[in-house]
């Protein structure tokens, strides 16, 4: 037992032994430039008979330890590296809690710190803390005014100034440019990072947006800085207002000079290809007003627009007519009129076709005949019965002679032929002059026939009279 007890006592007395007591610190503390950093340190007794006589904070520099702060129960705190005691202090001066506070931080405060306790009988015990000092950078981004060119050049710059450690800069863009980045170490130890966005400047790139993205340990999330590009280009000029209908004595004709550019053109100069402006013309900036059109404005007008990049001119030829030109209606109104006209035409054609078909069907029906119709060629009624006995009017039953000197044209329409043929086949009214008189044995049959004949030929019933032999004849019949 003797040798084992001696070995345990020896281990308890060795400096740095963690079997008797413990020093509690943080492995790493992060502070920001200009602010305070808190380095916790506590001594925990492992044996009731341990005694602490002094605590010392030291910083490792160039391979050596330098005293930063010392606390002694009798002599109090002292700060060898801060004689005035304005930047370094103990949070609660005591041997149990020797937390160190440093601030405002400087970049040279960064380093490795030791919190060491002098104890008895355990000897000196310490804990190690790494202090990291961060410098939050100032981030900015701006566009460069550059002219349109065929060479690649910087069009935007993003800067992360006085940061520690250096920031990381990237770009977001759909223009497909390139980037270049550089770093500069400042006198206080901070680092400034500069990144340029480069491309071939064109008119299409003007007004486009690119975004600078800055990442740094001092930022909870990346910072985005949008930039709107400014590409300078000369004016693009056009003249509007001429409608090709300028005629003599026309009033209030006007031309307008439209110009686009970066920067926007602010100066417009009007002239003509034949000399000074006509007296009837008034210039109002980009507008040229003609009070009364006459022969003097039958010329070529020129508009020149200027910005700080360049000057560009364009021209408009004016032709003055003797009288207004006839204009055909166009546009949406003409299209609507055409559609309505087409619909009306189709409707009219449809109506004509319907009338034609109805007339044709009626003619076919008349040609086939109806029940009870009379056929003069066969001398038979449509119901198949023979006609009643007729009186002998052979002389009057002969066909009429054609009128001398008149003949049918061989090129007449089929319709006329059809009408003539139908007239020849139409049965005559009973009792009409020039045709046989038919005998009716029954008076009941005679009345309806009288009414039918008078209705078909426009006679009144009272104008008809019956003969003693049963035939009927009109009182006003005319014989040919």
Q: Can you give a write-up of this model?
A:
The chain is of the alpha+beta class and 480 residues long. The protein has four domains: 8-134, Immunoglobulin-like (Sandwich); 138-229, Sandwich (Immunoglobulin-like); 234-321, Immunoglobulin-like (Sandwich); 378-474, no CATH class. The protein contains four helices and 32 strands. A hairpin with a 4-residue loop joins strand 26 and strand 27 (311-317). The radius of gyration is 61 Å and the shape is elongated. Residues 1-20, 393-397, 399-413, 429-446 and 452-480 have low confidence and may be disordered.
What's the gist of this structure?
The protein has 480 residues and is α+β, with helices and mostly antiparallel strands.
Q: Bin the helical content.
A: 10-25%
Beta strand %: 35-45%
Query: If strands are numbered along the chain, what order do they take across the biggest sheet?
Result: 2-11-10-5-6-7
CATH class of the largest domain: Mainly Beta
**Count of discrete domains:** 4
In CATH terms, what is the fold-level topology of the largest domain?
Immunoglobulin-like
What composes the largest sheet? 6 strands, mixed
Annotation field: number of helices: 4
| pLDDT < 50 stretches | 1-20, 393-397, 399-413, 429-446, 452-480
Q: CATH H-level name of the largest domain... which superfamily?
A: Immunoglobulins
Q: Structural class per helix/strand content? A: alpha+beta
* Global outline: elongated
**How does CATH name the architecture of the largest domain?**
Sandwich
Gap between N and C termini, in Å? 178 Å
């Amino acid at each position: 037992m003797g040798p084992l007890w001696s070995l345990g006592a020896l281990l308890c007395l060795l400096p740095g032994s963690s079997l008797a007591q413990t020093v509690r610190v943080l492995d790493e503390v992060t502070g920001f430039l200009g602010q305070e950093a808190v380095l916790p340190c506590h001594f925990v007794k492992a044996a009731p008979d341990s005694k602490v006589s002094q605590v010392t904070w030291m910083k490792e520099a160039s391979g050596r330890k330098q005293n930063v702060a010392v606390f002694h129960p009798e002599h109090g705190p002292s700060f060898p590296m801060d004689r005035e005691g304005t930047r370094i202090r103990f949070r609660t001066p005591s041997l149990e809690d020797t937390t160190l506070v440093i601030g405002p931080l400087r970049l040279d405060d960064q380093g490795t710190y030791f919190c060491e306790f002098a104890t008895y009988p355990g000897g000196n015990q310490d804990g190690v803390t790494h202090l990291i000092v961060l410098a939050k950078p100032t981030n900015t981004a701006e566009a460069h005014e550059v002219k349109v060119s065929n060479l690649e050049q910087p069009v935007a710059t993003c800067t992360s100034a006085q940061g520690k450690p250096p920031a990381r800069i990237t770009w977001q863009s759909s223009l497909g440019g390139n980037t270049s980045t550089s770093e500069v170490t400042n006198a206080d130890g901070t680092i400034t990072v500069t990144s340029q966005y480069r491309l071939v400047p064109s008119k299409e790139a003007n007004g486009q947006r690119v975004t600078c993205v800055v990442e740094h340990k001092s930022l909870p999330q990346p910072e985005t800085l949008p930039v709107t590009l400014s590409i300078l280009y000369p004016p693009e000029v056009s003249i509007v207002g001429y409608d090709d209908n300028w005629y003599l004595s026309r009033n209030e004709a006007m031309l307008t000079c439209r110009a686009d550019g970066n920067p926007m053109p602010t100066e417009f100069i009007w002239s003509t290809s034949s000399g000074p402006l006509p007296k009837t013309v008034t210039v109002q900036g980009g507008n040229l007003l003609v009070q009364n059109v006459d022969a003097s404005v039958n010329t070529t007008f020129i508009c020149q627009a200027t910005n700080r990049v360049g000057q560009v001119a364009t021209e408009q030829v004016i032709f003055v007519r003797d009288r207004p030109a006839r204009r055909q209606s166009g546009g949406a109104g003409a299209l609507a009129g055409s559609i309505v006209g087409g619909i009306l035409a189709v409707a009219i054609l449809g109506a004509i076709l319907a009338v034609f078909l109805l007339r044709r069907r009626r003619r076919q029906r008349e040609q086939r005949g109806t029940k009870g119709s009379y056929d003069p060629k066969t001398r038979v009624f449509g119901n198949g019965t023979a006609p009643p006995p007729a009186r002998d009017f052979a002389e009057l039953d002969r066909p009429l002679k054609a009128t001398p000197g008149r003949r049918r044209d061989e090129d007449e329409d089929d319709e006329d032929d059809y009408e003539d043929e139908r007239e020849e086949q139409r049965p005559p009214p009973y009792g009409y002059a020039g045709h046989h008189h038919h005998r009716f044995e029954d008076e009941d049959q005679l009345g309806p026939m009288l009414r039918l004949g008078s209705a078909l030929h426009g006679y009144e019933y009272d104008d008809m009279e019956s003969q003693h032999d049963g035939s009927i004849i009109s009182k006003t019949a005319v014989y040919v």
